[in-house]
Design a protein that fits this description.
201 residues; two-stranded antiparallel sheet
Length: 201
């Protein structure tokens, strides 16, 4: 089996490498060369630079704003951004909730949520673990009770990376207690900054 890249793929590698070298702001490049860590602000700055180039979501279908690349180009791109020590992008919007909305969301949800995930105008965090439910998500206790067209959430989440920056959170919550503990769990999206009763601390 020949695993070598084609001339076209090698040309793409050079394109990505050269673009990264030109696109990274000087201070960001200095930190990358030194192996330093990046702040949330710097990661979001890099997010927006990639977005303007059209490369922020290499795994998304082109119809939703992704690159539409095949596996070879995605691999080359990943190798180059890792090799250049660029700021790591938050996975919560681009890699976690975004693909779920693409696969399972309504057209209205796709139109509402996907563009600001891509552009970086809205930051997401995850709501999985709880104070007494770490890796055992089947034991989670946060309840979501139906109230007309809304759900009332009652409980806590912990180890919520990016919560202090997030505009939205996707939460696993219990909507049914009648079956096995692995059942009756739903996936809800909540506005962190504008929903009464949500407190980040």
């Amino acid at each position: 089996m020949d695993l070598a890249y084609t001339p076209e793929q090698l040309a793409f590698r050079d394109e990505v490498r050269n673009w990264i070298a030109e696109a990274m702001p000087p201070e960001m490049k200095r930190k990358a060369d030194a192996g330093a860590s990046f702040s949330h602000t710097e990661s979001m700055q890099w997010h927006k630079i990639l977005y303007e180039k059209g490369w922020v979501a290499p795994n998304w279908p082109a119809e939703y704003g992704g690159t539409g690349w095949g596996i070879a180009r995605r691999t080359i791109f990943q190798d180059e951004i890792v090799g250049a020590n660029t700021p790591e992008l938050s996975p919560f919007g681009l890699s976690m909730v975004g693909p779920l909305i693409i696969q399972f969301g309504t057209d209205e949800q796709k139109q509402r949520f996907l563009p600001p995930i891509l552009s970086g105008d809205e930051v997401w965090c995850q709501g999985y673990s709880e104070p007494n439910s770490g890796s055992d998500l089947a034991s989670l206790q946060l309840r979501a009770e139906k109230d007309g067209d809304d759900y009332i959430l009652n409980g806590q989440k912990t180890w919520t990376t990016y919560a202090q920056h997030a505009d939205w959170i996707f939460v696993l919550c219990r909507t049914d207690n009648t079956g096995k503990k692995q059942e009756g769990i739903s996936f809800l999206l909540a506005d962190v900054k504008n929903t009464p009763g949500i407190t980040v601390k």
